[in-house]
Amino acid sequence: MRTIQTQALDALARRSLHHDPEELRWLLDHGAKLDKDAIMITTNTFAGSPASVSPAVVALLIQHEGIGAFAGTRLLQQAARYGQVDVVKMLLDAGADPNEEVPAPAHDWREGSTLALTGAILGRHPEVVWLLLVHGASVDRVAGDGGRGAVDLARRVGGRAVVRLLEEHTGKKSKM
Q: 10 Cβ partners below 8 Å, 6+ apart?
């Protein structure tokens, strides 16, 4: 059972996710714990403000908590959607699953499940698309409206650079 003191450390650690990584490091080194809910809340904030979670904080959390702490939190998917190349690379290099499908938040009626590759295509981020493909993201799992694939989705919204990357990867040529 966590004491009042350790619960206070946990609360400070949750707050420090958006601030100084050194403060967060100190709190974690002194017994603070972050659960998936805290990271998921951070991810929801991340969606509204892409710069709110720094790569330094992500690196620290990977070091302290391991990559498993991010499973199901949507951090990879949101970082891909908002073009946070450093965060995407860090998560993938640490072993995050590029094909992890995470349910959209209950308050987001526009989306079903979320894949990082879908987010990168929708966000028009060719560098992130490339990183995901290099790390094994499956273009076959991406389905746009009506079940169309990644190339078709990119053709509609992703811009020419994203379309070219996906065409090279799949060997399919599409009409722009």
A: 2, 32, 33, 34, 38
Q: Using the predicted structure, report yes or no on whether residue 59 has a pLDDT greater than 80.
A: yes
| pTM confidence score | 0.80
**Rg, Å, the chain Cα set:** 17
pLDDT at 176: 46
CATH architecture of 34-103+115-170: Alpha Horseshoe (1.25)
Q: How far is C-alpha 55 from the chain's CA centre?
A: 12
- What pLDDT, in 10s, does the model give residues 158-174? 689 999 999 898 876 55
30, 63 in Cβ contact below 8 A? Answer: no
Are 89 and 48 a contacting pair, CB within 8 Å? no
